[in-house]
Amino acid sequence: MEPALKRTRTVAPIHRNESVGAEFVRRIPTLDNQHRVRGFNDYIHGTIEMGPLEQRIIDTEEFQRLDELHQLGTAKFVYRGAKHSRFEHSLGVAHLAEKLVLSLRRRQGLANITEEDVLCVKIAGLCHDLGHGPFSHLFDDVIVPEFFPGKIIPGMNGGEDWKWSHESASLKLFDALLENNGIQLSDYGLDDQDRQFIKELISPPKEPHLRTGRKLPNGKVDFDKAFLYDIVNNTQSGLDVDKLDYFSRDSQRVGVIVSDRHEYQRLFQNARVCYVKKGGREYTQICFRDKLVKDLLDVFRTRFDLHYKVYQHKTVKAIEFMIRDALVIAATDRKRTISVSGKPSPVCPDGRYGIAEAVHEMTAYAKLKDSILDFIAASSEPELEEARILIKRIRTRDLYRCCGELETFPEALFEEEDNEDRLLDEIIHSYHRAYPEAAARTSGAKRKRPGGEQGAKREDDDASLRKHELILHKKTLHWGKGAQNPISKIHIYTKDMVREAEKVEEKRYETLLPKAFQKRSLLLFCKSKKMEAAARLAFRAWSVQFLGAEGSGSDPTNSSGESEQGFRE
């Protein structure tokens, strides 16, 4: 028997092949025919149709900005085909979100899923990435913490402090987009609860009982619609249409084929809304047929492969650190040479916002794009000279160098927060202990050159290690849920039990599993070519502290370049 899902709104039935946009056009007679449905030709999904509300959102400065944010950030400097933007990705997510919810409604006859529900899910997919900054996750994970400890943004005008994430920024920018462009959701059949629902779909509260975007007439949360929160941003298992789109799109653009765009079609065909139990409550969730376990594992493995081959490629990370350093220099310029205009506020009464200050005001923030590098490079102020040099180094391929990767170390070393500075001190100390002569150079001691000239500078004097020229990076690769098996977060139904779903026992598919779902390593980057050789030796010497006890039997002063147990150059 199908789930007895409740009807919350009464609407005319929609035909099998009729688009959501067309349905809404019939109900909005004030719109011209030319604004009914617009088609976008997409290289992944073919034709993507957008209705009147979607078009209004797309045709705004806030949304068009996504066309100037590269989807893969700094990966475009390594994979030259990776020039696609968050604009096309957002269209793809909206398309898949609509396609999935319509597929579920049609195949299961879910009469309680209204046209408003479908439109809200589609709008959430369209707007889920509005809050990304220049170079995507670089801004979230590196720039914001540099100026706001813990990513806590102080509230303005008596407002509460809030924690930065691109999802939380998307919510604020979504509100700003509607306000700045005079878009009234009521003109498209949506109300204030629908607006709240869209925002919750973008950034869902973790627990279903906290999700208030859909309520019953008695004011209680409608748990029969809980599955709608699994579509755009699935906080339960991590499997959502956002990932399905960028897996296909990214792998196609970088030429690293790890995902087939037909994978999602098989998943959609075998997806089903079932009841699951959690915390004494029964609510709906998108579940999958038991025969799809291997397909699901392949999707999560794709995430690992893309991070391994593309997103966290050592050269991609090196360029990311260089852009970070350039942006930090520009953001700390008191003259605000690089600034954007916005609404006056207590932070910037004149309405001119620096790179970091722009997070306080969404009109200003919406003007930050990847093109900020071009403005820095074209500047002439002496305060930005170092930033200009870094950008030139990127463009002339004079990059920071990865001097080694350590894969075997105590887990507590990785778990400890903010210990990179201390570890760099240890690395330099290990170098000085293994190479006493280097310690003497660093302390400024004078030596005799061959030939008897005392105090003259030797050619390798600048090769002594300096901490500010080193970067220690903690790298984590996983299948989507850290060290946990992501399949353990998904409920599975069988051919004979389609109404309720359960978690599948791992032993039933253990032969398909990897030895571990998470891989961690420590990487050392060096900013100066002159220090590269010394940095390699220092990292190797330091690594022996963790590898020697494991019986590697290696010489810390060995500079042959041969790999040691758990250590790679």
UniProtKB/TrEMBL annotation:
Cite the Gene3D superfamilies for this sequence: 3.30.70.2760, Hypothetical protein af1432
Region described as Disordered? 438-463, 549-569
Extract the Pfam families matched here.
Answer: HD
Tell me a GO biological process for this protein.
Answer: dGTP catabolic process
Provide any one GO MF term from the record: dGTPase activity
Q: Locate the HD domain: which residues?
A: 86-247
Q: Which InterPro entries match?
A: dGTPase-like, HD/PDEase_dom, HD_domain
An example of a Gene Ontology cellular component annotation for this protein is: nucleus
Composition skew (Polar residues), residue ranges: 554-563
Under the heading PROSITE patterns, the entry gives: HD
> Do you know which PANTHER family this protein is assigned to?
DEOXYNUCLEOSIDE TRIPHOSPHATE TRIPHOSPHOHYDROLASE, DEOXYNUCLEOSIDE TRIPHOSPHATE TRIPHOSPHOHYDROLASE SAMHD1
Q: What is this protein called?
A: HD domain-containing protein
Protein source organism = Pinguiococcus pyrenoidosus
